[in-house]
Amino acid sequence: MSSIVLVDTSILLNVLDVEGRNERRDEVIDELAVRIQDGDHLFIPLAAIVETGNHIAHVSNGAARRSAAQRFVQAVQGALNSEAPWKPLQFPEHTALAAWLQAFPDSASRQIGIGDVSIQHEWAQLCTKFPMSRVLIWSVDAHLQGHDRIPA
Description:
By secondary structure, this protein is α/β, with parallel strands linked by helices. The longest helix has 19 residues. The chain starts with a strand and ends with a strand.
């Protein structure tokens, strides 16, 4: 059965082969192929798009930075045009943003950024919306890997 998968920044950085952020690229590409073959529904949260763009903007090598930026634009435009293996999530409503902000001070004290807070909240919303489906955050970051709800 296919799963609903939120694609984290760490995965996008590896897929896009961003210099200095691609240490698990082979593993991620292999897993992406399996997820596509399994028919998983891949979604990119807005936070992952923004964070990925920010990481790319800080690549030290100018040529590598520009090349990564071009791959990033292609990947996001492909998602917007339904020409990629993933789709972007809708922009959050004000109530969702307010919930993220309310949770942020406690998260920040645990060194979890607002982007990851928003991804965790998006995961919880998808769990509620799709109670009969497996919903997970695909990430190489330990604090997000535990978000994997398998229905009973």
